[in-house]
Amino acid sequence: MANQRNLVRTLGLSYVIIFVVANIIGSGVYKKIAPMAAELHSSVWILMAWIVAGIITMFGALSNAEVAGLLADTGGEFVYLKKIYNRFFAFIYGWSLFTVIQSATISSLAYVFAQSLNNIIPVPEIFPSLQKLTIGGVFYPFQDFGIKLTAILLILLLTSLNISGLKSGAWVSKAILLLVFIGLFLIVFFGLTSNVVKPANFMDVSDLTNRTVTISSFFTAMLAAFWAYQGWVSVGFIGGEVKDANRNIPKGIVIGVFIVIFIYLLVNVTYLSLLSIPQLEHIHATGNQIAAVEAVRSFWGTGGVMFISLLILLTTLGCTNASILTGARPYFAMARDRLFFPGIGKLNKTNVPGNSLLWQGIWASVLVLSGTFDQLTDMIIFAVFIFYGATSLGVFILRRKRPDAYRPYKVWGYPVVPAVFIIFCIFLFFNTIVTRPREAAIGMILILSGIPVYLLLHRKYSKND
Question: Domain range for residue 82?
Fold first, then answer.
């Protein structure tokens, strides 16, 4: 192991912030307001869900930032959980990333990219006679197969780009993110100043007495919001390639999440001022419409549809690229620590973990065939909040185990902020089991499938020692 090459620290604070924002702003800002409307039936409650989800996300980010400041290294959460708990729990997290959390995130984003491309250039139907072929009555691999194949091609193309080197992947994220910011600003500005805007759509406070909204339905709606906020933790995966990581990663996480919360509130107020709740519920019911597209259509017509479709295309392209770039690093760190297959821990000639990127791309492509967009995203949120909660619990554990260790950042509002976030994660876990049992079951099966893999790896390496 002594002659292994190590990753090079080339990324500063600006790139950390870019990766945080680029990993978060994907498909959720365009799509998720429709399922939230179907769940809550109220514009005021929808905005409340976005705000509460943003606050909870910030609580998680603040808690994670303290742990990252103390333990930052390549692999992010995998490294943190190994030092806080043990190798087994860290492996289960890494395995969950590979089987469901990160790979399904890539699949979901690529799927929305393909849907948006289909709005601009119709993707031909492929194998239409196999559309109803099912696996266990749950998966329909050939449904919308033309769109799924397009998503797979995108994943493989971006995987190849990132195998060619870190800086090329980072530059693509920076350029795309600038264009996305400009596009979202144009939607907000022209949407809110158009003659079709109806402020009453989102300012009816009488909606707060809406008795159809329960704690459970509010949490279920927040699954959609959390998907839109999902991804900020991924920047920790490239800790070994960040200059002064213990300072820049905590700063980048906090700044990046603040930027995203502000953008999301502006954009969703714009949607709600242009579309009524019945319109949003109808968009959700159709299954193949995107709320942002219909909002822009209302004030820019068919030309606006082309504009927003191109913007969604760019956004999901950037987020897919950022997710691929950061996502492969934990598996690389696991393999270097003898907790994954050995070949995954090798760097290629451009000093990036090429094998890790390749296998991630292959499995993400398989997941594209497994389900719909909403099924994948609910499954991701269920799985990831188990480990978000565990990392936040690590704030308390590390304060007790390493009280004198230098911390570049200490979580604001300790102990209330991490405690609130942990309690929320527990409630979300059980609420998802009740309200989304299929997604929770699939997520748990994929997570627990790591146990026999861990035992096999442990036995293999024990024999070699």
Answer: 13-464
